[in-house]
Amino acid sequence: MAAKALLDPFGITILEAASRVAAHEQQRLASVKIEAALEAFKQAKEDKSDKHRQAINQMATHLLKKFRGVEIADIKGIDVGKWMDEKISGPTSFNGRLRLMKNFWRWCAHPARGWCKPEILDVIERKDENPEEIGVLTAKQAEQLLRAAEKHIPDCVIPTCIALYTGMRQAELQRLEPSHITKEGISVPANNDRKNKRRRFIKMPPPLARWLKAYPIKKHICPPNYNRKELALKRLAGFRVWSDYVKKFGMEETPDEKSTEWPQNALRHTAASMAVALKKPLTDLLFEHGHTGGEETLKAHYLGLMPPSVAKAIWALAPDKKS
Q1: Model-wide pTM > 0.70
Q2: Lowest mean pLDDT, pick from 37-51, 59-73, 163-177, 192-206
Q3: Which residues contact 233 (CB under 8 A, 6 or more apart)?
């Protein structure tokens, strides 16, 4: 009678409630812990591009920090949504991660596996984003980033400078080897990503040459643990980015809400805006940056976005360390 009284306001019978509980328990019996599900998902996606596999690895790392040891059938969408709000800044990054996580949950829910329900993340709403808005760094922010690298994470100085002065994509940057860089420039290896299938050559920017002289390349372009270090570097430079690596420097993982949000693709957009402001020929910029659109698209995105004075200030940044 007590059970009936509890269920009556919701129009649910005791039999319906029992059926739901039985279905959930049956789901739990078929389920696996999230670490096993993530490992199986990564193996199933081994044929994907470097960029896609990197995104999966980042998703897995973050999910395990929160839900390690939990059966995937027991994870609630509302808990995932709250965790994403805390850890992921920027609507574009949020929506990209949500899209990948929904793919992961649907894969886990496929009848061949049946580890969870496919709709579990439907309670999480996409963030509003303005695809026309392009964020770039100011001269002060660019300097803060490079000084933070010099002071705290020196093995990130060169990959940061390459991204800042060439606009190279992160996936391309992480494929670079020392042999790809000469005094003349950088040979960017081809990849199977649809945006950058062609091999291309980027002439050596003078500011990058200055930094390379002060920080000669050794075994790697990007250091081991680069993804975690890169997030920490943004945080150390004052941006609102979640990072567990900053605990090494006595900082909390969760950033101050009042800090500045890191613009999406900030280094790539800054590099392109800087090149346009300094009147680099658009044909050279299109090829060296690997842009897929034409000159008109490039002008629409970057023309007038950065004043020449700011571009010159970033171009003039030099290392504190002497070679």
Answers
A1: no
A2: 192-206
A3: 145, 148, 149, 152, 153, 156, 160
* CATH architecture of the domain covering 10-123: Orthogonal Bundle (1.10)
278-311 residue pLDDT tens: 887 767 666 666 655 555 555 556 656 688 999 9
Return the CATH number of the domain spanning residue range 139-315: 1.10.443.10
Highest mean pLDDT, choosing among 69-73, 157-161, 192-196: 157-161
Distances (CA, A) of 101 to 166, 215, 251: 31, 38, 28
Per-residue DSSP letters for 124-149? SPPPP--TT------HHHHHHHHHHH
Tell me the average pLDDT across 27-37. Answer: 74
Burial of 121 per CB tally in 10 Å (0-12, 13-18, 19+): buried
Distance in angstroms (rounded) separating the CA atoms of residues 196 and 169: 9
CB atoms within 10 A of CB 14: 12
Copy the structure tokens of residue 64.
Answer: 């395990």
- Sorted by where each begins, the domain ranges of the chain are 10-123, 139-315
C-alpha neighbours within 13 Å on the C-beta side of residue 46: 4
pLDDT at 290: 66
Task: Give dist(CA 31, CA 114) in Å, integer.
Answer: 7
CB atoms within 10 A of CB 322: 7
